[in-house]
Amino acid sequence: KTNAVAIKILSDQFPDKAHIARLKNERYMSKFLASRCAAVRTVLDCNFSMTEMEDVIDKQGCNPDSSRFVCFEWLPGVTLREWVQVSNSADINGIKHNLKLSIHLAWQIAHSLSEIHEVGGAILNNISSENIIVNSLQNEKDICTVHMIGIGLASFLREGQPEGSLHEGQKDVKVQTDLCSLGDVFFELFSGQSPHQSYHDRAENIIDSVIISEGKNTVDQRSNRRPLRELRSILSKSSTPPQLALFVLELMGVFNSGIRGASASCHHYYTSAREVSEQVYYFLLQPESSLSKMSQQRFHQSMGYLSFNANNLYGREEQQAILMNSFEQVISREKAREIVLVSGCSGAGKTA
């Protein structure tokens, strides 16, 4: 379609079996999903000369080692992470990124993931802003489309088992892995910042020479997510509408265990990518003014935000700190419950 090719190569001279297995899995899963899902790029059968593939020539047999590279159709556009960075600082091709455009992009991503789950019967296990390609806009009438890349960790929902034999609880846990990652992606899309405390570039980047080189395995940043209080603050400062901000945090699962792959018995606000896409589509149909109807106060209350009336608790800073500390232990440190006994004489301000 584009008359260009992207070649993904294992750059290490002696890659380990895990790297080779991952590339092999990406070739297989991409070929399988591309025929069923529009958001997965096509695998191409490419024949290269020795000169063109000298970096992957087998030193002993003098033949290109097909286990160390895979060819894809080239996708014009930028990664979602680049799209977000540019949209926060300037226009792309003179087109200003607005809230509606971001919501539409979120819907495209959720809809694509839904298709991969339901039609392809697979989960990606590696959704991030760097593994989503957004097409370049040429004019204001263009509609953003997305493609999922870097699917070397993808797997089938019913891998190695007859149809229908996978326990629904197991399936739900697998789907939640993708949904929590989707929440992280939406957080970055709407706030302009990563939900993780540190953000390192992966050794997997698209470059002009149409060569994609993969180095080390993807670093799992899930355990390094920012505290809830900080996530809430970032969304508020980014002027993300409260309704949308609450939706993103619910999708991220920050009000549950906060750990991906948690037990299926845990409460999840969303159980499928289709449900998420329907919710985003609802936001897309709403005027921007209606998305901001929820006040910031109600937004914080919806997330378990604790506040004190200074006029009623003057001089009670120490007691406020104790209550706030207990509150933070419950919502940020994943503690099930905390009991605080408030005692004092009549008129001391216990009710306030």
TrEMBL record:
Superkingdom classification of source: Eukaryota
Domain Protein kinase, residue spans: 1-284
Residue stretches in coiled coil: none
Molecular-function annotations in GO: ATP binding; protein kinase activity
PROSITE patterns: PROTEIN_KINASE_DOM
Protein name: Protein kinase domain-containing protein
Organism: Ditylum brightwellii
